[in-house]
Fold this sequence. Notes:
Elements: H1 12-18, E1 19-20, H2 25-28, E2 29-30, E3 33-46, E4 61-64, E5 78-81, E6 84-90, E7 93-94, E8 100-104, H3 106-109, E9 113-114, E10 118-120, E11 126-130, E12 135-138, E13 142-147
Antiparallel strand pairs: 1-7, 2-3, 3-4, 3-6, 3-13, 5-12, 6-11, 8-10, 8-13, 9-11
Amino acid sequence: MTGQGDKDEIDHEGVAAAVDGLLHTDTQVHDDGVDLTARQVYVVDDPGRVDFGGSELAPATTTPHGTRRRNPGEDHGWWHLDAGQYLIEYNESLSGDEEVLLQARRAVLERGASHPTRVVASLPRMPLSVGGDGVRLKENARVSTLRADTTRLKR
């Protein structure tokens, strides 16, 4: 997905073509990549299990985190997330098997929340860490960015 002549040239249109379920292409596709939106936030209720061989591997038990409306008649609610660990599910999905770089958006980082940076070919639920006094996250908020260049991390 990088250009032949300039290794720093990133083909975000190619990434956008591999993303299904974009809510608003004009907003989500930009020069820095393709933004992903939060469909659901989950609370981990009971721990999962990870062992050496995988025979005792078990998923964590999760439940959807409720939302609140700030104003009557609002179309979308807000997740009021206290400090802790959550899982984010995206509205979007990836088609094909091309790997892309997945990072938390700067807007999320600057408000005290983060998730791991990963190279992905699909979009699993992503762990979200919330620190300090928590964060308010609106349904369908742009929380992550996909980038074509998996060989380097961007600031």
